[in-house]
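Here is one such tokenized protein:
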Amino acid sequence: MSAAHLSRLEEITDLSMILQGESNDFTEWLAKDENIRTLTDLLSEAAGLNFSAEKIQSKAENFSVIITASEAETDRKVIIMTDFDSTDDSGLGKLITSAAINNADLIIWIVRQADDEHRAAIEWLNSRKFGNTEFLLCKIKLFRIGNSEPAVKFEVISRSKTKKYDATDNVEKLRFEYWNAFQAYAFDGGNNPKFAASYRRWQTSSNYGVVFGTGKPGFSIIIAKTKDDIEAGLNIADDKKSFEYLLSRKNDIEAECGFNFEWLELTGRKGSRISTKKSPAKLDDKSSWPDQFEWIMTSILKIREVFGKYIREAENGK
């Protein structure tokens, strides 16, 4: 058997070659609903959050787009501003104005290049603690393998350091330690090679929810850690038809996953959720953490594999 041919992953440093032009600029790409879902899925994974876009609020010149979104578990209002250029004072002003007009709780600024002074400005805004408002500065990157289609990735380059955990809050501190220990167990310990090969590390925080991709825009896996249990679920951003099909295959899905799921259509909201719990799974019982980590990794892989199969069936039947 001949050795496999391995290609090299290369970063596309000149983004204008891909994202500018009459048919391929970033604003036109974002004008399509499926691409907005891709954007929010990638951002969710990069930032360790869970939100879905609601609409493009406005489109301005210089490749600037503003998107409103909401965070699934908390209903925090999110503003995402894409600015296909280097940061400047005008863009920062527009960001703050949009946040104020929309009364946003989480403000994400996606740029091609971040200047030091504007990165410092985002850090200063976070340090002022305007209630629970948080600012994230993200850089857009493109990669390709050989002559493949370009793939997009977002890198969080500035966020609130105070959001990691409050040292006076034991639950916040424990949850930060928990996710640190999980990443060491999952990626350093060799305990589940399939999981380690499928996912990558993220910036540890004290968030109770962590988002994992499925490879399918609009579908993400959420792991939520409370004091007493763990919830693993599939979040469907805006696709009621797929939810209905999955529900029709409920018995098959639960048998293949080995879980009983709670099926939440979330009437009146765009999204839907399908989840299961491990209980008890005490946050303060560190001796049980390895067992909890095993459950998390196994659950993520089962949900991705089994639901992925039925999601493809749903698409083929549309």
Residues 58-63, 162-168 have pLDDT under 50 and may be disordered.
